[in-house]
Each structure stands twice: as C-alpha cells, then as structure tokens.
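R.M. (postdoc): so does anyone remember the format we settled on? I'll just put the structure tokens first.
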C-alpha cells in the first residue's frame, strides 16, 4: 500500500519543486527578458527585471544582419542526422553488450565512458588536419560524424541500461519462433524499448544542438549552425547583450518547443496506456 502524504508535506514538496524549477529556468528567463531591452537597459546597474521599455528592435536587427533560417536548417540537419546515425550504431552495440556479453564488456563500457573525460581541445589539432585532408572542413557531413562520435558513448550507455531491463527470455522465445537477428532487433527489442530510445534520441539531439566547441572550430560559413549564429554577436567591438540575448532566444526557441511537445506527447502516451 502507498503511504499517505499529509497536505503540509504535499505543500512543502510542491513549493520546493517549483522553487528549484524556477531557479534552473531563471537564466533562460533572464535571457528572454534581456532580448526585449535596449542595449542601455541590458547593462543597467542595478539590473532591471520588468520595469523597462519593451522593444522588438533587437530581433529586427538580428534578422536583418544574419540569415537565421540557414543557421537553423544547419542545426536541424547536423543534430538530427548525428543523433539518428548514432542510434543506428548504438542499438546493435547495446544489444550485444546487454544480451550477449563477453568478459570484456564492462571494460569496453568503461573505456567508452572514459573517452568523455578527454578534453576536446586535446584532439582538435589532429581532427582539424584530418578534415582538411578529407575536404570535410566547414561541411555538414564532417560535423555529423564528429558529433555522432562524441555522443556515441552516452547513447550506448543509455540504451544498454534500458536493454538490461528487458527480460532475455522474451528474445529467446522470439528465436524459438524462428525470428532472425534483424527481426529480433526490429520487431521485438525496439518496440519494447521505445521509451528508452525516445529519451535517448531527445537527450542526444539536445547535446548535438548545443555543441559549440566543435561547431565553432570546424565551420566557417556553409555549415555554421545556431551556435555560430550566437557567437557572431560577440565581437571585438564589445558585447551587445541585448542583441546577443535575442540571438540566444531565437536559438533556444526550437528546443523549448521540442521539449514542450515531447512532454505533452509523453503525458498523452502515459495517460492512454493507463486508461487502456
């Protein structure tokens, strides 16, 4: 039986949850508010929270100065393809580690995780030279491969964790019914792991979307995503905080919409499953 929770305890938990949520969201809220200020109001001391003259001038200047649609399309292509390609590689890898482990499986998993501890700048020079030799510098294909590789350990680890929760007897029953390896992965394992795969896709899409180090160092014009779009408003002439905030708001808006839509779909799916 579930333990009863007193109204006072519910109130405390709810208040604490909202306080933590607002604390985490405050930097995003401040960026959005700053994007509607003038440059003078953006650097005012003490800071102005709500009592300022709202303006859309920053968004007008940003849209006139930069081709936002091109940067947005590059981000969608690079983040989307790197995530999908990573999952296509990680699903068979996680399946083999979860259901056909060897004595080196744990060592391989730890080694993959240890690669995330390597500072990215430590391998920038050789990768930069390699990109020049292969003609991949400032190309979407090059960034797709790089972002897929740097996020692949996270994808494998997450899928491995989800796959370990699936009883192996179900896959054995599928084999006894004559399912091939491909059919086992496609028709048995994947449908059962859809929540885990979906959350993995979403997390790694966001990681690829927010990646700045590689996108700023391996692109110039043609394949520059929204991270380069934001960085263009940090210039030697100074920081234009209001315009920089407007560019940042335009860059995070698609992710906020995606997160809201994903949350609504998740709640709808869970509600439908409970009713069913």
């Amino acid at each position: 039986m579930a333990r009863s929770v007193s109204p006072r305890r519910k109130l405390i938990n709810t208040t604490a949850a909202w306080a933590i949520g607002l604390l985490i969201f405050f930097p995003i809220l401040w960026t959005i508010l700053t994007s509607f200020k003038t440059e003078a109001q953006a650097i005012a001391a003490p800071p102005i929270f709500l009592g300022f003259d709202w303006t859309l001038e920053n968004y007008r200047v940003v849209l006139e100065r930069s081709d936002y649609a091109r940067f947005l399309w590059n981000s969608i292509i690079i983040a989307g393809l790197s995530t999908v390609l990573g999952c296509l590689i990680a699903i068979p890898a996680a399946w083999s580690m979860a259901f056909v482990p060897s004595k080196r499986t744990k060592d391989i998993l730890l080694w993959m995780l240890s690669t995330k501890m390597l500072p990215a700048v430590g391998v920038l020079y050789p990768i930069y030279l390699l990109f020049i030799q292969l003609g991949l510098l400032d190309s979407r294909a090059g960034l797709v491969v790089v972002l897929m590789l740097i996020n692949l350990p996270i994808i494998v680890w997450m899928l491995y964790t989800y796959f370990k929760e699936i009883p192996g007897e179900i896959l054995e029953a599928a084999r006894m019914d004559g399912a091939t390896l491909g059919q086992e992965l496609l028709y048995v394992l994947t449908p059962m792991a859809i929540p885990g795969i979906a959350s993995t896709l979403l997390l790694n899409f966001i990681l690829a979307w927010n990646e700045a180090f590689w996108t700023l160092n391996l692109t110039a014009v043609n394949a520059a995503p929204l991270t380069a779009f934001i960085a263009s408003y940090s210039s030697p002439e100074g920081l234009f905080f209001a315009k920089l905030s407007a560019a940042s708001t335009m860059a995070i808006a698609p992710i906020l919409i995606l997160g809201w839509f994903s949350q609504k779909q998740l709640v709808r799916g869970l509600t439908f499953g409970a009713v069913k």
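R.M.: ...and that's the designed sequence above, right after the tokens. Also worth knowing: The mean pLDDT is 84. The first helix runs from residue 7 to 34.
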